[in-house]
Amino acid sequence: MESQSGIQMSNPRIYGRWEDPEPARRVAYLVIHPTNNFMGHYLLEPLRQRGRAILALNTRYLGNDSMLLMERAIQDLGAGVRFLRQQGFHKVVLIGNSGGGSLVSFYQQQAERLTISTTPDGRRIDLHPDDFPPADAVALLCAHLGRARTLADMIDPAVLDEHDPAKTDPDFDMFDVRHGPPYDEDWLIRYRTAQQARVRRIAQCAVNAIASFDTDPSNVNDQALLVHRTMADPRNLDLTIDSNDRAVGSIWGNPQTINRGPNGTARWSTFRSFLSQWSLDHSRADGPACLAETSVPVLNMDYTADQIVFPSGIAAYSRAASGRCTDVKIRNVGHYPQGNDQAVKEIAEKLVEWGG
Q1: Pairing mode of beta strands 137-141, 91-97
Q2: What per-residue confidence (pLDDT) applies to 95?
Q3: Ramachandran region, residue 146 (left: φ > 0; alpha: ψ -120 to 50; beta: rest)
Q4: Which residue in 24, 39, 157, 254 could disulfide with 195, CB within 3.0 to 4.6 Å?
């Protein structure tokens, strides 16, 4: 959804890249993310070479999550599944890569039993069972737990004033060498509690603002929300926490620099979209919780050198799909394996071996 384009709003489309080398119309894969452009995804060519059809689908929020509603993102995913069924494919495998993991889990949950009739802010939403043809299997590739839980792990709890990020509490500054790394376990517990408290304070501000919008028809119906400092996960500096094969740092570079930068996770949204995607108590797109309410086979791939998806998150998905989950480790591979031909080959072969 381009925020200003009248062309897109009057002729709405979502876009994808379709590779179909399989005339038998047996198995098709669909890879998706809430906002990332996957039309250049590293699995497109490897799956095509192995005779598998794949649709890399983008939602309406491509490159712009400022107004993202997860309830609309799964509707877009449903359009992709319906397209594949119309092409005659008997089996559809959803690939949830990174943030796509919670999206496909949320989708499959609602496809098996639609429960949503409103957005998290209470507005009616026109969803119908026909919007959500169920898939046959879910493959998770280095999938994080969902936007809300990821933000709660990354947000900087030292911020005291949402309008002035320079006002901070030094007791919760993870970049202050007096605290670590390594970080004391008791300090970490207080740190994590403070992170969740900050996310909940922002969400409560959103709830209060929306209530004023909804009770005063002369008011605006939403407003922009800016969230500073959202790159402060101690795991990026302390490799003993949730340990795997990763190096120090984040997937975007130096954590302290990114934390203070002008762009970052959850930096730009609206009050209503914050509740749908980033709020711990309002977002419905919790990956493991949604996956637990599905019935399909699950492939759960752990890229063991990942700097943003950690073993505890991988294990949460495995527990959620206990008894129907196949766990695979891709050793010494980071969150972005493109450029590592051998790793991509291994990922593709594991997918085909498992998914058919």
Answers
A1: parallel
A2: 98
A3: left
A4: 157
